[in-house]
Design a protein that fits this description.
Layout lengths: L11 H19 L5 H10 L5 H12 L4 H22 L9 E2 L2 E2 L1 H4 L2 H19 L8 H12 L4 H12 L7 H27 L4 H24 L2 H4 L6 H4 L4 H5 L1 H18 L8 H12 L3
Antiparallel strand pairs: 1-2
Helix pairs in contact: 1-3, 1-4, 2-6, 3-4, 3-9, 4-6, 4-9, 7-9, 8-9, 9-10, 10-14, 10-15, 14-15
The chain binds 3-methylbut-3-enyl trihydrogen diphosphate (2 copies) and magnesium ion (3 copies).
Length: about 290
Amino acid sequence: MTAAADTQTRPFAEARKDAQDLVTAHMELRLAGNDALHAAMRYAITGGKMLRGFLVLESARLHGVPQDAAIEAALAIECIHAYSLVHDDLPCMDDDDLRRGQPTVHKKWDEAMAVLAGDSLQTFAFELLASPKVGAHALTLIRGLAQSSGKYGMVSGQMLDIAAESAAEPLNLEQITKLQSRKTGCLIEWSATAGAVLAGDDPAPLRQYARALGLAFQIADDILDVEGDAAKVGKAVRKDADAGKATFVSLLGLAEAKARAQSLCEDACAALSPYGDDAATLKEAARFVIARDS
Ligand code: IPE
Ligand code: IPE
Ligand code: MG
Ligand code: MG
Ligand code: MG
């Protein structure tokens, strides 16, 4: 039996918290297992804002998709995101010791465990999407997630991010936009369009929303690296400049980066006009993304 589609518009804070609780509870069950690999996977998936899972569930709500199908997609994207963070934190990447307020996986266990937990979170995401609960459009979602995650998407962006650290010349605006839309934007775009894809509807307005949101999200992350409080952000701050990271902040400075995040937030909200008042929660999410302190 499938649960009915959720139809009510709710405040963002409430909807995000529900998404967080739902993803966390499901993951405890789906990743139950007594071995260290399962323990590391559960550890890695816990404690995030679950913004991508929220975007899946909210776009599904907008398109009348039953939650039984949407939850598989929400879990899948949070697995991919968690894997990307576990690998991002490795000594050969950003070399971070703190994530989501806890020691990173390679600090809590070791580097081999971090590589392997990341690997198995990635493959588990595709196992989840291949569930019969996902329905007729599963293959579109699976192909889209592979593209958004891999050599056209997040991994490609991470490659550009690492390469920029030792580039002879600072990256220009076009290059930084490409880097950031790949490393961060692609997974956000997949998440926000998932509801329309699950319903077999046109994902174009959500795609436009997500492209602006994804860039705004990474600008906010780069601003938090400069201005944030590590205790609140749950990860080390003031590292990007010394590491030679190419960011909107490194190129434009703080004031202009903030102005750009604001204007991207407005673009994101404008893209939702076809949904009318029903998109209030997603608009609030865009405002949260640029105002957040964690
Ligand atoms: C951090 O993402 C990594 C980036 C893409 C900037 P989040 O800020 O969504 O991290 P969690 O999931 O809440 O920990
Ligand atoms: C990471 O970007 C984006 C990923 C694909 C994981 P960052 O390296 O800026 O993310 P944080 O600041 O470590 O969370
Ligand atoms: Mg990084
Ligand atoms: Mg990092
Ligand atoms: Mg960062």
